[in-house]
Design brief:
The protein is mostly beta strands. The chain is 12% helix and 32% strand. It contains four helices and 20 strands. The two termini are 32 Å apart.
């Protein structure tokens, strides 16, 4: 479906590039069975047992921990930021650098003065799909005067809406956000006593749950297509059998200002396994392990490091920017 939609968008972009004869019959587009009326009730994904099970099995959440906590996605509390501050974080499993699209609907210029409307965002992949990623690249979809509140809940409907003139071609604004889709019924721990509910989006004709993480500072530029990465170190000292997974040392820190042109934060974390000649408790920040250049690349190790291995494993480890907020 992504390929079909991409082909349609490319065709729309090229409209008017060549002359052709007028059609022999009217070519005004007709109705679409995929586009639903404004008053249509869109079912929750829970009515589709197969798709719900697919999401549940592939959303990278610990089912036993969720059952024990009343479906609470708990924070881990022992992470260490690049500056040495203790940070809390959420883990959403192994990921790759290819983001998935998310379409948001509204009015105004998509690049300068876009105002999102009440239509839920649309995604075209959920956990368990090959194309799925918890990181979504944002496309803005401007509706036209023909749009009367119709519900566009599938990518087939999106393609039809473009053909019918209800929307203009989606515009990639080259921003991404960490917004994992999760099984129904969860809540996100955001403080010692507080939780946040998920937002909802359309996927495959259903309403599904998603958490958009990082707030406004979590929306980051991505001009190059593939997502930027940071690094996270798991350390072990002499005599330790395994690398300590519960105390990640992040290269990243919490951003304090909006990014300018390039990303100043990403939760996409490349794992480094680090062997020490000292106790792991002596490592309190990334600079206790490495010297980095201005681009963030490792150029030397500190005396405490015996060896390190930059693995091919990439994890979605989202640092919580502010207590009480997703």
């Amino acid at each position: 479906m992504q390929r079909a939609l991409a082909a349609l968008l490319a065709t729309a972009a090229a409209t008017g590039a060549a002359c052709r004869l007028d059609p022999l019959v009217p070519d005004d587009p007709g109705a679409s069975a995929a586009i639903l009326p404004a008053d249509a009730a869109i079912p929750n994904v829970t009515v589709n047992e197969e798709l719900t099970n697919q999401i549940t099995l592939n959303d990278s959440l610990d089912s036993k921990a969720l059952a024990a906590s009343g479906n609470l996605i708990a924070r881990s509390t022992m992470g260490v930021a690049s500056n040495g501050d203790a940070v809390k974080y959420w883990s959403f499993g192994v990921v790759n650098r290819a983001p998935a699209p998310m379409y948001v609907f509204g009015t105004g210029d998509p690049m300068t003065a876009f105002v999102q409307n009440s239509h839920l965002p649309l995604v075209d992949a959920v956990p368990g799909d090959v194309e799925y990623s918890p990181f979504h690249t944002i496309y803005r979809v401007r509706v036209t005067d023909k749009y009367k509140g119709e519900k566009i809940t599938t990518t087939a409907a999106l393609a039809d809406a473009l053909e019918l003139g209800l929307i203009e071609a989606p515009v990639a604004i080259k921003n991404f956000v960490n917004s994992p889709i999760v099984r129904p019924g969860t809540k996100l721990e955001v403080s010692m006593t507080g939780t946040a509910p998920p937002m909802t989006v359309y996927a495959r004709g259903y309403v599904v749950d998603m958490y958009q993480l990082g707030g406004t500072l979590g929306v980051q530029p991505n001009p190059n297509g593939l997502l930027p990465t940071s690094q996270v170190s798991f350390v072990r000292g002499p005599g330790d059998g395994v690398y300590i997974q519960t105390r990640p040392i992040f290269q990243a820190g919490i951003p304090t200002v909006a990014p300018q042109g390039t990303a100043n934060y990403t939760a996409l974390s490349v794992v480094i396994n680090v062997d020490l000649n000292t106790s792991t408790s002596s490592i309190t920040k990334d600079s206790d392990l490495f010297t980095r250049n201005a681009m963030g690349a490792i150029i030397a190790t500190k005396t405490e490091v015996v060896a390190f291995n930059i693995t091919t494993t990439q994890l979605d480890l989202q640092i919580q920017f502010a207590e009480g907020s997703p």
